[in-house]
Write a structure and sequence with these properties.
The chain is 43% helix and 0% strand. Helix 3 runs antiparallel to helix 4.
């Protein structure tokens, strides 16, 4: 029939991504770290900038009507609140920054397993669950992220 687009030319919808849809974040590597959630440079030290970025992200997500994505919407709000708590608490932020630095250092040292004798494979550290308030789950481990 005329006017119809052949199936091969139809666009396949992208899977729903709350980070893109609700926060406007286009980072390709996941999971995002807490700084990335707020579109901040890693290791940002200014508490006013962190607080303002966190509040803006929370307000943006709260302004969304989640419809059928209510569970994901609530999970994202929880993740943002957890990130804000961590980044605004000086001792937790220091621990998080240490873990991010260690993860970056380990990623540079990781040697893909090729069967060569004598090579050492260093596993990146896991996120310390003590950074998070009781009853709140920590985000996915950095070792869950693809390298």
């Amino acid at each position: 029939m005329m006017g119809q687009v052949p199936k091969a030319q139809m666009a396949v919808p992208e899977p729903f991504d709350p980070y893109i849809e609700w926060l406007g974040l286009r980072a390709t590597n996941r999971p995002l770290n807490y700084y990335q959630l707020f579109a901040l440079d890693d290791f940002e030290d200014n508490p006013q900038r962190i607080g303002a970025a966190a509040d803006a992200a929370l307000a943006r997500v709260r302004s969304v009507r989640p419809g059928g994505e209510r569970k994901r919407w609530q999970q994202l709000l929880d993740e943002l609140l957890l990130a804000k708590l961590c980044l605004m608490d000086p001792s937790r932020k220091i621990q998080l920054d240490r873990q991010l630095r260690a993860t970056r250092q380990c990623r540079r040292k990781v040697v893909p397993p090729t069967g060569n004798a004598g090579q050492t494979i260093v596993e990146p550290p896991r996120i310390n669950p003590d950074l998070f308030p009781p009853g709140m789950a920590s985000p996915p481990s950095v070792t869950d992220a693809p390298f």
